[in-house]
């Protein structure tokens, strides 16, 4: 049984050379091997996907072989279609490349949006307290207690039927609509994390000092609270990206994904096609979209884990 | 303590009223029950439509929503539930079966997942930084990063389709509670149908609880009172169980109560993929039909379960941790 | 003189870290007579707590401990964990610095004491409970029967420390190790706790090791003092002699840095404690010492008689022995 003596380093008198906190975080992050590998993989994949026109030899809705020249449906991988073809003869590789682009866009856009909203609401709620804080916490309590997918689907259809939101969110089932939908859910988790952070920072001396020196709330948020909340915010961002990408795929699985007709596809749509393909034994239609999805979710999860350890070394694995 | 619980129970009533009202509004705006009725029953006469509208209290305008809500509430409480828009079926018998099926799946899966997850977390936390810790941690991280539908579809692909091509028959059925046409109760058959869905749900909770238990136990193991406990000269096992686990399980238990509360509505993905006739499947069908008379009672069950288990979680926390003040 | 109840010989403790081996304790010798109260003084990181935690077997398993510590006739270093465990709480007990975090927050105070009693004495629940009441009364806790049913968070800091003391003396240990027991407390409460410890010592004849960085507390309570610096003992003396005639530059520095009524400025010791990854060779205090010379590099750390004290300073006769 291992029971570490609390603050052992301190009592041992290990004097650490003065290193800036940011640098310490970076140094700890670098020791997280899985996270470092994930960053490289994710960067390569993202670059690959952004440069999709170079390797995608076909359009999203383009058939590999003209139907008049022979059967083109559900072909196993071969030279003309590296990942095989789908049920109407389109090149799976090209579709995955373009689909990942849409999924990454949905993931990052909604995560950044929810981070912005969540950081704002969370820090104001934490700083101001009182009625505003109560209301925000109650609302998020209710939403977070609800089974996620139920809440997501109910809000989805409600959002779509509020006429004055149309100019902002766009039509239901467009990519823009999904980004706003996921952001609407994502900000709550972020806000709670930031609020907790703010509440603990609020008691610390440097914030009290700034307040005593007459700094405004806005200044304190910008100069003290947000920089000190960088760790939880980055972790929340990573969770948000994964959450949005998986949510998109889940919605698509039940037929509520982005419209396939709009000249784009997404990992969610490809995965939902896999559902029927699995039963028929067309393994490539399941395998490659899954691989695409899992590469993204796993890399980002490991990066998030590395960030968490780097900012909060208490629970670090590689000690 | 009893007064606290009683007061919390009384407070549940306004909470339930408020949340059900919000959900009522959301569903009326989101699914547009009248339009859905017309879409599902294309040949409905004007009289039938009017009857549906008045029976369900689907009045327009802000006041109409309030009035409609109270009419719906009265009907719901007196058990005078409107029939579903598709097939004019009674709602309760189907809902009841769905609830039973979901509870069976959810309780088995959560029990397995939470227990195994806690054991994994303890196993990892006892040797922080060692191989077993890193492997449990990575496994849990992967378990969380793989969406449940991917697990579900891969299991289907492997145990049904590929197994069939290799061995001539599939190992586990991939849909339903019983094979089509089956009637009566058959425990073995039912268990076989539950294996794959249980695995999918259990993997998720295993991953969550392994990580949660690990970090909770690490917090406790690093605390001063663990050193005091060891300084007493009591056995390592007693130090771990009576002082370590006793404290580390407090937050985990709270989380478990919250999770059990969301079983009722939380298995949508698994049930959808395995065609498992539980609450999730019920919701998916009702939602896609815009079936207002089916959706509302379903929602009430979900809300009730969530609110009730939230209360249980608070009570459990107060019982387990004397530092929590009850007022 | 009777045989020492605790005898430490050449105790060394190191911790492997990613940056290298941290040598926290570097050859400490220490004797404790029955019934004696010895103060161990030093700044944070001087190895004073680690030394005694290692005797108790309470260091994390990766700690490398060598040397010998014989407690009540039993070797405590390098023997199997179970032997050490059985000594803990019975022959040697410990009081920790922060009484709030040192008590289990979810266990009733009485139960924590009863657990201590029953793990070493075969008493049934009633007898153990009665004994716990007796102990709580002994440490001056009013209404022991009511208090025993409460949880630590319902106690004040001083009361919690009394509970810790009651727990520590539950099995009449030969040695009580008090690791900065008053540091986290208010000054008035500090005084009460010191009184309790004195009282206990009078009544039970338990030998006490009192670890602190507070010389004022030492002056008040200790019979003898050992001063530690960078993992070594640099000076040992009876308490009166240490304050009147200290014979090590570090001890003198410590005494000079104390606030004194009528003196305007404090004179702190310049510099910072050494990095224990690579402590200076010879006398570790050398880099901060106003009297350092080349011969200090070769200092063995051996204590020699200098006036009324034993000092590790090799240049003490040049600097001037205080008698």
The overall strand count of chain C is 12
Q: Which structural category do the helix and sheet elements of chain C fall into?
A: alpha/beta
Q: What is the beta-strand fraction of chain B? A: under 5%
The CATH superfamily of the largest domain in chain B is known as MetI-like
State the helix count of chain C: 12
Mean pLDDT of chain B: 89
Shape of chain B: flat
Shape of chain C: globular
Mean pLDDT across the residues of chain C is 89
Q: Unreliable segments of chain B (pLDDT under 50, ≥5 consecutive)? A: none
Q: What is the count of distinct domains of chain B?
A: 2
Major β-sheet strand ordering of chain C? 6-7-8-3-9-10-12-11
Order of helical and strand elements of chain B? HHHHHHHHHHHHHH
Question: Could you please describe the fold and organization of this structure?
Answer:
Chain A has 319 residues and is mainly alpha-helical. Chain A has 14 helices and no strands. Chain A has helices at residues 8-12, 21-31, 33-50, 52-55, 92-128, 130-145, 148-160, 166-169, 175-202, 205-212, 217-228, 230-253, 267-280, 283-311. In chain A, helix 10 packs antiparallel against helix 11. Chain B is mostly helical. Chain B has 14 helices and no strands. Chain B has helices at 2-31, 33-40, 46-56, 61-77, 91-125, 131-145, 148-167, 187-221, 224-231, 236-261, 263-266, 268-273, 279-289, 292-320. Chain B is flat. With 323 residues, chain C is an alpha/beta fold. Chain C is built from twelve helices and twelve strands. Chain C has helices at residues 48-56, 81-87, 99-102, 109-118, 125-138, 144-147, 157-168, 187-204, 215-221, 239-244, 249-256, 316-319, and strands at 6-17, 20-32, 37-41, 64-71, 74-75, 92-95, 175-179, 207-212, 224-229, 232-238, 304-306, 309-311. Chain C has two domains: 6-222, P-loop containing nucleotide triphosphate hydrolases (Rossmann fold), CATH 3.40.50; 229-319, no CATH class. Chains in contact: A-B, A-C, B-C. At the A-C interface, helix 1 of A face helix 1 of C.
């Amino acid at each position: 049984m291992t029971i570490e003596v609390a603050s052992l380093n301190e009592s041992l008198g290990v004097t650490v050379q003065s290193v800036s906190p940011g640098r310490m975080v970076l140094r700890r992050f670098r020791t997280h091997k899985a996270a470092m590998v994930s960053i490289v993989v994710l960067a390569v994949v993202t670059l690959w996907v952004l440069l999709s026109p170079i390797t995608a030899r076909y359009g999203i809705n383009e058939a590999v072989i003209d139907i008049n020249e022979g059967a083109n449906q559900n072909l196993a991988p071969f030279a003309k279609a590296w990942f095989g073809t789908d049920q109407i003869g389109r090149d799976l590789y090209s579709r995955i490349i373009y689909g990942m682009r849409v999924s990454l866009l949905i993931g990052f856009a909604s995560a950044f949006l929810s981070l912005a909203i969540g950081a704002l609401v969370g820090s104001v709620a934490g700083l101001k307290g009182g009625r505003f804080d109560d209301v925000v916490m109650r609302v998020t309590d209710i939403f977070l207690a609800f089974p996620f997918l139920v809440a997501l689907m109910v809000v989805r259809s409600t959002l779509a039927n509020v006429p004055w939101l149309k100019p902002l969110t766009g039509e239901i089932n467009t990519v823009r609509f999904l980004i706003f939908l996921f952001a609407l859910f994502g900000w709550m988790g972020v806000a709670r994390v930031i609020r907790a952070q703010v509440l603990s920072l609020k008691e610390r001396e440097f914030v009290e000092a700034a307040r005593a020196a007459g700094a405004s709330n806005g200044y304190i948020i910008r100069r003290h609270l947000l920089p000190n909340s960088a760790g939880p915010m980055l972790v929340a961002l990573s969770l948000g990206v994964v959450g949005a990408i998986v949510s998109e795929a889940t919605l698509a699985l039940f037929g509520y994904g982005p419209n396939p007709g709009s000249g784009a596809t997404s990992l969610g749509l490809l995965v939902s096609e896999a559902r029927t393909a699995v039963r028929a034994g067309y393994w490539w239609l399941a395998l490659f979209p899954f691989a695409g999805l899992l590469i993204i979710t796993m890399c980002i999860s490991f990066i998030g884990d590395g960030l968490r350890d780097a900012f909060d070394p208490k629970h670090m694995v590689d000690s | 303590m009893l007064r606290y619980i009683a007061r919390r129970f009384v407070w549940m009533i306004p909470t339930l009223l408020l949340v059900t009202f919000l959900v009522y509004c959301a569903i009326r705006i989101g699914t547009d029950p009248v339009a859905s009725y017309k879409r599902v029953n294309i040949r409905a006469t004007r009289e039938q439509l009017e009857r549906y509208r008045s029976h369900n209290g689907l009045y327009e305008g802000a006041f109409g929503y309030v009035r409609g809500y109270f009419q719906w509430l009265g009907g719901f409480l007196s058990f005078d539930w409107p029939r579903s828009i598709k097939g004019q079926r009674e709602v309760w018998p189907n809902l009841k079966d769905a609830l039973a099926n979901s509870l069976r799946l959810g309780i088995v899966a959560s029990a397995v997942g939470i227990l195994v997850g806690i054991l994994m977390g303890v196993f990892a936390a006892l040797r922080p930084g060692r191989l077993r810790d890193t492997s449990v941690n990575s496994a849990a991280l992967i378990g969380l990063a793989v969406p449940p539908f991917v697990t579900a579809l891969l299991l289907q692909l492997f145990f049904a389709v590929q197994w069939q091509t290799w061995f001539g028959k599939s190992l586990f059925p991939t849909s339903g509670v019983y094979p089509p046409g089956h009637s009566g109760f058959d425990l073995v058959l039912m268990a076989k149908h539950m294996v794959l869905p249980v695995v999918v749900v259990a993997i998720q909770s295993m991953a969550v609880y392994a990580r949660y238990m690990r970090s909770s136990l690490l917090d406790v193991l690093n605390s001063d009172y663990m050193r005091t406990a060891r300084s007493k000269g009591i056995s390592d096992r007693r130090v771990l169980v009576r002082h370590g686990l006793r404290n580390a399980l407090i937050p985990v238990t709270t989380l478990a109560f919250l999770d059990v509360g969301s079983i009722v509505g939380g298995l949508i993905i698994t049930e959808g993929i395995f065609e498992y006739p539980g609450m999730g499947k019920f919701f998916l069908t009702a939602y896609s039909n815009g079936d207002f008379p089916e959706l509302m009672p379903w929602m009430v069950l979900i809300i009730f379960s969530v609110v009730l288990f939230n209360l249980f979680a608070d009570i459990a926390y107060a019982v387990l941790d004397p530092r929590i003040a009850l007022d | 003189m009777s045989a020492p109840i605790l005898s430490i010989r050449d105790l060394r403790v190191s911790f492997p870290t990613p940056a290298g081996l941290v040598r926290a304790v570097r050859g400490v010798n220490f004797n404790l007579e029955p019934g004696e109260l010895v103060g161990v003084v030093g700044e944070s990181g001087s190895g004073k707590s680690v030394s005694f935690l290692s005797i108790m077997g309470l260091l994390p398993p990766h700690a490398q401990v060598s040397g010998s510590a014989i407690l009540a006739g039993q070797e405590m270093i390098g023997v199997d964990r179970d032997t050490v465990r059985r000594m803990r709480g019975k022959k040697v007990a410990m009081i920790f610095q922060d009484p709030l975090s040192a008590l289990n927050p979810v266990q009733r105070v009485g139960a924590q004491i009863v657990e201590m009693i029953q793990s070493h004495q075969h008493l049934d629940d009633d007898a153990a409970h009665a004994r716990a009441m007796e102990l709580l009364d002994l440490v001056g806790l009013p209404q022991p029967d009511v208090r025993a049913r409460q949880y630590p968070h319902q106690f004040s800091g001083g009361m919690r420390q009394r509970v810790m003391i009651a727990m520590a003396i539950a099995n009449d240990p030969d040695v009580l190790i008090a690791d900065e027991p008053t540091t986290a407390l208010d000054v008035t409460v500090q005084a009460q706790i010191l009184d309790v410890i004195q009282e206990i010592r009078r009544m039970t004849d338990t030998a006490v090791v009192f670890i602190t960085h507070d010389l004022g507390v030492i002056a008040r309570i200790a019979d003898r003092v050992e001063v530690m610096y960078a993992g070594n003992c640099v000076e040992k003396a009876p308490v009166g002699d240490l304050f009147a005639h200290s014979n090590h530059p570090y001890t003198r520095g410590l005494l000079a840095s104390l606030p004194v009524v009528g003196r305007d400025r404090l004179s702190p010791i310049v510099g910072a404690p050494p990095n224990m990854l690579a402590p200076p060779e010879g006398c570790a205090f050398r880099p901060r010492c106003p009297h350092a010379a080349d011969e200090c590099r070769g200092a063995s750390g051996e204590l020699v008689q200098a006036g009324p004290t034993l000092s590790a300073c090799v240049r003490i006769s040049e600097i001037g022995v205080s008698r």
